[in-house]
Input
Amino acid sequence: MIEIVNGTKRYGAVEAVRDVSFRVPEGEIVGLLGQNGAGKTTTLNMLTGYFPPTAGQVLVDGQDMLTHPRECKRRIGYLPEKPPLYDEMTVRSYLRFVCRLREVDGRDMNRHVDEILRICGLWEVAERVLGHLSKGYRQRAGVAQALCGDPEVLVLDEPTVGLDPRQVVEIRDLIRELGKRHTVVFSSHILSEVQQLCQRAVILHRGRLVREMRLNAQEDSDVLRLRLSAAGSERQVLPALKSLPCVRRVKSLPTWDAGVTEAEVECAREDGDRDPRDQLFRLLCALDAPIRQLTPMQDTLEEVFLQVTAAEPPASQEVQSR
Output
């Protein structure tokens, strides 16, 4: 649905983002993760056409943002880190104003604004002045303006920054609901937020894309990592596990029960229907060492993030970005 290809942005001699490429399919919620200064806002500004990349392309449903800016921007709703609100306007009049900017048909405008007010939980403050609203309601109004014109793609920059815990939960619930009807890209430096909301995470570090990973699912891989708990001594169980052709590595894990073996087992995925777990079951049944637990293991988002952002680039490649 929306894609950036080898996106690079330079400010004079400073290279804020370099060769960033990723694609967000229709109907997916993707989190853009990174430390402060990683290049998240710069990347989102390129995605939305706020400013052009120095090199590379932004494609919206196959159309180039540079050659078809009007068509592309119609399909994107953008919430900057600081919502673009006019404090002297009421919520309703502000949304009508944004709808006019986005060329919403006047005959449908009232119905469209009413729908956005309901979706964003702003109905009860629709006639209040924006400048008198709480931080949480102002953030909701910022999301609401991004919905004007019913764009297919929503791009949200740090949508929960500065909110109290209750407001954070409310905005997260709103994003989750919006993800049922829209493609959503949002930036954050809060790992738990991305873990809860997204199907996929894109991690930036020092202006470069260093990792993409699917969340809440085992990543496609030729290796299956399992945590095994079996009734039996390590002397009996571990050598037997290592003898299996599919097992690449066995690591003993601490346990409080002398009669139970805890281990991390790394198995090769095999072609066809031969699942490594079937071999483990058969082996341990033959040893009379019943399996008490056998669960897939996956690196957490926190572990991956800390790993890929730990290494510092050479001084000559250091970048600065928003």
